[in-house]
Specification:
164 residues
Length: 164
């Protein structure tokens, strides 16, 4: 793991901007996860059934198998919750950013905003290629490249500083 210090993050404004981005994305993930955990009727089935493009066959397979659907629901609920907590607290945030990127890139691949694909779910807007999932995955990539949790976060108590 590379040691990022003040030479990489040039000033406090950059640091605070990156921490703010990490916390906001963490809040978004945490809220999405908890809202699914507390709703006894939530399932990923509707989202998967509406899948188009490359992963639609996999989505159909998951929905048709109760065990796979249960795993999908579990991974979604707990994955979102744990990634959110990780980013919000700055604890194991390097792992949290990677896991978050995987989740939102999967959401993107199951329902990409491409021409000719129409979804039954009402959309939030009009997208072409770029949507909130792709943007959030890229923002998580920035957080991964410029980690801040070892400066502002609980990781600072877990990671030993490198000696020169």
């Amino acid at each position: 793991m590379r040691n990022f210090d003040s030479a990489i993050i040039k000033d406090k404004c950059q640091l605070y901007g990156l921490v703010t981005l990490r916390v906001l994305i963490g809040w978004h993930f945490l809220y999405e996860g908890i809202s699914k955990l507390i709703n006894p009727y939530w399932s990923s089935a509707a989202y998967l059934l509406d899948s188009k493009w490359l992963l639609s066959g996999l989505a159909t397979t998951i929905v048709s198998n109760p065990t796979l659907l249960g795993i999908s629901d579990y991974v979604n609920m707990w994955g979102l919750t744990l990634v959110g907590a990780s980013l919000l607290l700055g604890l194991f945030s390097r792992f949290g950013t990677l896991a978050g990127m995987v989740l939102v890139l999967l959401y993107y691949l199951f329902a990409p905003p491409l021409l000719g694909l129409e979804y039954a779910r009402p959309g939030e807007g009009s997208y072409l290629i770029v949507n909130k999932n792709l943007i959030e995955a890229c923002a998580l990539w920035v957080i991964y490249l410029f980690p801040t949790s070892h400066i502002i976060g609980l990781d600072r108590f877990c990671v030993k500083p490198k000696s020169n």
